[in-house]
Every structure is written in C-alpha cells, then in structure tokens.
Amino acid sequence: MEAKKIILDCDPGMDDSMAIVMAVKAPQLDVKAITTVNGNYPVDVTAGNALKMLELLGRTDIPVARGMAEPMFRESPKDPFTHGKDGQAENFLPEPVTPLCEKHAVDLIIDLVKEYPNEIYILSTGPMSNLAMAMKKAPEIKGMIAGIYAISGMFGQNPYAFANATGDTPQSEWNVYVDPEAASIVYHSGVRLVALGLDVATHFDVNLTEEDLERLRRSDRREAKFLYQSTQFVKNRGFEAYCAVIDCMAVGYAIDETLVETFQGRVGIETKDGLTLGNTVVDYRHHHVWETLPMIEIGKKADYGAFLKMLMELVLR
C-alpha cells in the first residue's frame, strides 16, 4: 500500500516534536514537508525546533518552512503551560545547521497541494494560521486537500476534556484559542476535517507505564531519550505523561483511522473576546439545529493501548 502523503503543520513544542518523530519513522506516511507556526512558542523557535528533530532523525531531506508569526487578526497570547527554556522539555538539542526552506509555509502548503491534488493530508497540531492563510490566498486548494487531521477543540465528551483544557479560557483548547478566526476559516472550508480534541488527546489513559519509561531510558535511540526526558519534565511539574505526546494522536490517526472513534457534528467557534473565546461549540440538538455551522468529524474515544503500542514501537524501532 502506498504511503499517505502528509504535511505536518506544527508549533514544536515537545509534543509536536514527538509527532515529528512518529510521522517521519512511520512507513505508512510520506512526509512531504513540515510547516511551522506561532503557537507554543514564537515561529522562529518552532521552526528551529523542527529542524533540530529532523537532524536528530537524520532526515534533513524533508523541507521545513517558517510560517505565520502572529494570529490572523489578534495578538498572540502567552501559553500558560511551558515546554521549557528550549521549547522541547529542556532536552537542549544542538542548534540546527540545516537551512529553512526558502518558501514561506503558506506558499509551500499551496504548492504541495497543487503538486499532489487530492493526495495530501494535512496534520495540524498547532494553531491553524498557516492553513487559513493558504485557503485565503489560494481558495482553489480547498477542493484539492485529501483531508485535515487536527489536534483541535474541546467537545465535552468526557471529564478529561474539561479538566485538561489547554486554552487560557476555562473550556478552550490552545490551538483554537490562539487563532480562533483561523480555525473558523478551516472549519468552514468544506475540507474533510477530523478534530481530535482534548476529549481523546489529553485522556489520562494516554500514559506510559514504568516499564515503558525504563525501555526508553535504556534505549540508545536519541528520540527515545528525548521522550524519556520529556515525560520526566512534565511529571516533575505535576502533570501526567500524556502532555509529552498530545499531538502524536493526529499522527496515530493518520497511520490508522480505526484508532479513534468519531462522530459527525456541527461546530461553531467563538471568536469574541471573553469567557468563551476559542470554545468549539457543538450543536447537539435534535431540533432547530443551526444548519449554517460546518459539519466535521469529532474524536469521541480512542484505543489508547493500541496508540501507546504504536508510539513505543515507532520511537524504539
């Protein structure tokens, strides 16, 4: 079976960094590019961190493009959750020597989608600023994207979705909260969108066992040591190990769509400042549904055992 062609649009971040590891090492995926965006850290940091991971993996043939430095219509918020001084759980990888792609991330997305019409899947693990700008600049690509798998939103499917909200309003998710206008554009684009929200991505069952951690610690793989340090970093700050691999769920879904059970729902995004900024609001009603809201696929529950097995096998292979 031919490998699925993907663009990983991300904001590394330790969990985005691990998503890069999974995507690059998965034989089921063909990573055509990594595009970076402002989100967890400023875009210069996220672009540099993406290059660091590719150098660690020996895959500098994959282009990395720097993208949007700010949200589309607002100032960038400060992330209340830190990924460390280096943005990578204080792994302190060497500064990259590989140059960035000469193209802006928005242009690289447009060009690759046009080069491979109906073949490119976009894995969105950061704010959707790059994707929204690409759709604004070249609206014709909306009919040429095979699908978007996104770590995006909070849909209230279980208590973890509420307890682990990552945005800076009580019930929002960080990637949507940073640039809600961009998310709204992508949600309304008509492209098949699978939103893997906090309901599945921050579930406490996404946790590594002591045996898993010991296997990572003993491995001579640099990416295994990266993940081990990342788990220790978050645990030392009172968080669970899932924080180190949130964005990996999108890669896992791209590899095997049976990993996550989804349902279809109409979703609106709150773009007004205040208590609910960045909320992803599902119209669950049987009657009087707002038909103008876009229909997307929403992650309901995941096979966490299969996901963690996949993660460990790819990191250690």
From TrEMBL:
A Pfam family it matches: IU_nuc_hydro
Record SUPFAM superfamilies: Nucleoside hydrolase
Protein keywords: Glycosidase, Hydrolase
Molecular function in Gene Ontology: purine nucleosidase activity
Domain of life: Bacteria
Gene Ontology CC annotations of this record: cytosol
One annotated GO biological process: purine nucleoside catabolic process
Ranges of residues in domain Inosine/uridine-preferring nucleoside hydrolase: 6-308
The UniProt record lists the keyword Hydrolase: yes
InterPro entries, per database record: Inosine/uridine_hydrolase_dom, IUNH, Ribo_hydro-like
Protein name: Inosine/uridine-preferring nucleoside hydrolase domain-containing protein
